[in-house]
Design brief:
mainly alpha; Four Helix Bundle (Hemerythrin (Met), subunit A); 9 helices; 75% helix; globular
Length: 244
């Protein structure tokens, strides 16, 4: 039986996502060896670009009608590397190594719970398509990378926050621990799979693009931070007011 050559297209995007994660690890190691934090910026952008590739593989599969079980499993393995191992290594080289076993434990926990989150997603993916149960691992990886980015080269030092992060790097470990727990929690996050476009959303996207031109990392960091806080606040609202 001949295989449709188009099946390779989405898997190429998935493979590229893995490569970007591996490159991020190499760059982060170089940053530690030469003691140049600017290399961490490049490592973080590699992981964020890997997110773009990860988002494209599924869309390409649907557009070319080449979705397959192999592609689903390959994508999950890629996510473990690109959004589990890579950000954990970057986190450890950036801040975790300063705190000995605590840095090792939290970085390792991020990878393990990320893998658990992906395994749970794979067996419940058809249960509800409008929301994710637990924080998606790409979002968890993004928030770590984006906070590193805004700390390293953002010119807008809001209320001295970024100077505080530079001198109190343990905060990154705290954030990594929290998002690790969120990944395996029952807190629901919107998936945007059935997102309906209208004029107000189009205008909102235009505003976000304008803000990204002015402050790319800061805007993205704010968006992902608000996304994470939305799930937590919604969960608290449901608990407090007993809304199902």
């Amino acid at each position: 039986m001949k295989l449709n050559p188009l099946y390779i297209l989405p898997n190429l995007f998935t493979a590229a996502s893995i490569f970007m994660g591996i490159i991020a690890i190499f760059i982060a190691h170089k940053a530690l060896m030469v003691d140049n934090p600017k290399f961490f910026v490049s490592a973080c952008w590699c992981i964020l670009f890997s997110m773009v590739l990860d988002g494209l593989d599924g869309r390409v599969a649907r557009l070319t009608n080449t979705a397959s079980k192999f592609g689903v499993e390959f994508d999950s393995l890629a996510d473990v590397v690109a959004f589990g191992v890579a950000p954990a290594v970057v986190l450890y080289f950036y801040a975790g190594h300063e705190y000995g076993r605590y840095g090792i434990a939290i970085s390792g926990l991020f990878v393990v719970l990320g893998a658990v989150r992906l395994a749970r997603f794979n067996i419940t993916t058809n249960v509800e398509s409008n929301s994710f149960i637990g924080l998606p691992i790409p979002s968890a990886a993004a928030i770590i990378c984006l906070w590193i980015l805004v700390t390293e080269y953002n010119e807008v030092n809001i209320f001295g926050l970024f100077n505080f992060l530079r001198t109190h790097s343990y905060v990154f470990l705290v954030v990594a621990f929290l998002v690790s727990i969120l990944m395996v929690s029952n807190i629901r996050y919107p998936s945007f799979k059935k997102f309906t476009w209208d004029l107000k959303y189009f205008i909102l996207i235009l505003i976000l693009f304008a803000l990204m031109i002015a402050q790319t990392s800061l805007t993205l960091c704010a968006v992902f931070t608000l996304y994470i806080l939305y799930g937590i606040l919604r969960w608290l609202f449901i608990i407090i007011f007993k809304i199902i």
